[in-house]
């Protein structure tokens, strides 16, 4: 396991959606890690301002895409960040999805080759996690990294992933949430994010089918059953119970993605913090 304490809960958001001010507030609320969604560029220039504005908060990439970033350049950025803020950065890497990448060929081997390059440039295996859904990459994530950062999953997937990873590897799934106890309104928000693009990307669809969801669940923007699983909604207490289900299933850490994505996450995170981090 990586020698880095992510805390039990963190915040997942597109890398352009965090500011130093929001990072400081998220740290004050008790969250342990910021997950920079999307694929930040080679320089990872958004990381240091977030670390500078905080004292113990960790920053992780969720994820750096191997097709669009150079392993050598990423390694240089990792070393630069570690020199200034030792022990506070975790590199998440992954292959993305074929629909968005013209170069997408033999993704497993390409990921192995990328990890080989990271090794050559001195990025320790215990300072990186892999975007992993299926058994093959989950196994790779513990053989060649500190663990896994699955996206768009359920506690059932978390349980299966923990069995594959063993007891020592980091398991940090992402979970979407909508703080709204009006079910129809909350589902509409969740469905908008889940359907486009994820229900049209075969790696996510295949994983959902492995978890028991059907073609009918995935069609027409997603069934209520599917959306309720992938975008928790309700009161802060109800959402917290859904987040804890990942922990109970074997997650070390849950990366919370607040929806809608363009709204400030702080009100939802504040409400959840009162339940997740009782004084």
UniProtKB/TrEMBL annotation:
One of its GO terms (molecular function) is oxidoreductase activity, acting on paired donors, with incorporation or reduction of molecular oxygen. Gene3D superfamilies: Luciferase-like domain. It comes from the Bacteria. One of its GO terms (cellular component) is cytosol. Residues 20-116 form the Luciferase-like domain. InterPro entries: Bact_Lucif_Oxidored, Lucif-like_OxRdatse_MSMEG_4141, Luciferase-like_dom, Luciferase-like_sf. NCBIfam families: F420_MSMEG_4141 (TIGR03620). This is LLM class F420-dependent oxidoreductase. It comes from Antrihabitans cavernicola.
């Amino acid at each position: 396991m990586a020698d880095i304490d992510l805390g039990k809960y963190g915040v997942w958001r597109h890398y352009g959606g965090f500011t130093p001010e929001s990072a400081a507030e998220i740290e004050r609320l008790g969250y342990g890690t910021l997950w920079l969604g999307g694929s930040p560029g080679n320089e990872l220039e958004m990381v240091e301002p977030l670390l500078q504005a905080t004292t113990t908060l960790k920053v992780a990439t969720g994820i750096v895409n191997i097709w669009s970033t150079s392993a050598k350049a990423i390694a240089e950025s990792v070393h630069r960040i570690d020199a200034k803020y030792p022990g506070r950065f975790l590199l998440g890497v992954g292959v993305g999805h074929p629909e968005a990448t013209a170069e997408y060929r033999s993704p497993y081997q390409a990921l192995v080759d990328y990890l080989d390059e990271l090794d050559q440039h001195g990025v320790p295996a215990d300072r990186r996690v892999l975007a992993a859904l299926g058994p093959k990459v989950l196994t790779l994530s513990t053989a060649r990294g500190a663990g896994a950062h699955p996206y768009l999953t359920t506690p059932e997937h978390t349980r299966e992933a923990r069995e594959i990873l063993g007891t020592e590897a980091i398991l940090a799934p992402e979970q979407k949430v909508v703080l709204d106890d009006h079910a129809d309104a909350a589902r509409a928000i969740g469905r908008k994010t889940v359907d486009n693009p994820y229900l049209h990307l075969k790696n996510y669809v295949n994983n959902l089918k492995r978890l028991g969801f059907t073609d009918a669940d995935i069609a027409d923007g997603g069934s209520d059953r599917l959306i309720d699983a992938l975008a928790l909604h309700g009161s802060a207490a109800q959402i917290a119970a859904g987040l804890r289900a990942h922990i109970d299933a074997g997650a070390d850490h849950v990366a919370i993605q607040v929806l809608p994505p363009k709204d400030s996450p702080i009100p939802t995170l504040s409400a959840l913090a009162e339940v997740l981090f009782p004084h």
